[in-house]
Every structure is written in structure tokens, then in C-alpha cells.
Design goal:
The chain is mainly β and 140 residues long. It contains no helices and 15 strands. Helix content is 0%, strand content 54%.
């Protein structure tokens, strides 16, 4: 398994999650959200894959804990960074919990100008990891 990391920036309340593709298999670090507002940014590293335009990260809403919310309208591929996806969350959970989500990547196809225009559906990848939430900071 490749090295994947999670980086917490407590000042800006962002969590950056590494996503790595090896032999068409997706590996993602496991983020843990503390209480309060957090923006999670998933970043594909070391490959040509980019996030699917519409469903790059797809939260499984049916499994969403009651006190964990996210802004669906702001769940999006980061402008000018097709290898990044951002979602703002609000964690008000009183106990440890989790939610599954999907990672959907595609391999871009370029036209003669080098602009990414069309995706190759046969090279699309999907992975189903977990996001954990806690009410207290982890110890250790």
C-alpha cells in the first residue's frame, strides 16, 4: 500500500487528504473530523487522474450521522485544480461516528491544444473509503 497522509491545518480548519492511484487502484488516507466547521480537500497525487466533474467525491447521504452536515452546493472540484475536490463540513456529533463516501476519478483526454475536453469512461475509477468524526480531539 502506498504512503497516504492527512494534514490538519487548525488555523484555517482544513483537512487535506492524499489520494493515490497505483495500478488503477485508489488509496486514500482516513480523515478524522473534530467538532466544528472543517473543509476537507482531497488531492490526487502522482498520477494523471482527475476528479469526475460532477461526482468526484460523493458522500453517502443515507449513512450521514445526524449531527454531521455538509454544504452540497459547495461540494466541488477545486477551480483550476482538477486533481482537488473540496467539501465544507460541520461536525456537531456527540459520539464517534463515520460515513462512507465514494471517490470517482477519470483519466482526461486532451485535444490538439492540450486542453482537457473529454474523458475516457473506460478509464474511470471508483473507491469507497470512510470519513470518521469524533467529539473530542484524539489523544496521543
Amino acid at each position: 500500500m502506498p504512503d497516504v497522509n492527512v494534514v490538519y491545518d487548525f488555523e484555517s480548519r482544513t483537512v487535506t487528504v492524499d489520494v493515490v492511484v497505483v495500478d488503477e487502484e485508489i488509496f486514500a488516507a482516513l480523515p478524522v473530523l473534530l467538532r466544528g466547521p472543517w473543509t476537507v480537500i482531497w488531492t490526487v497525487n502522482g498520477s494523471a487522474f482527475i476528479f469526475d466533474l460532477h461526482d468526484g467525491i460523493k458522500i453517502h447521504d443515507a449513512e450521514l450521522p445526524v449531527n454531521l452536515t455538509y454544504n452540497r452546493e459547495e461540494s466541488q472540484r477545486v477551480p483550476d485544480h482538477k486533481n482537488c475536490w473540496s467539501i465544507p463540513f460541520q461536525n456537531d456529533c456527540q459520539t464517534t461516528n463515520s460515513v462512507n463516501y465514494g471517490i470517482n476519478l477519470q483519466l482526461p483526454e486532451s485535444d490538439d491544444s492540450g486542453d482537457v475536453k473529454i474523458r475516457k469512461p473506460e478509464l474511470r475509477l471508483h473507491h469507497d473509503p470512510t470519513l470518521s468524526v469524533v467529539s473530542d480531539p484524539p489523544t496521543g
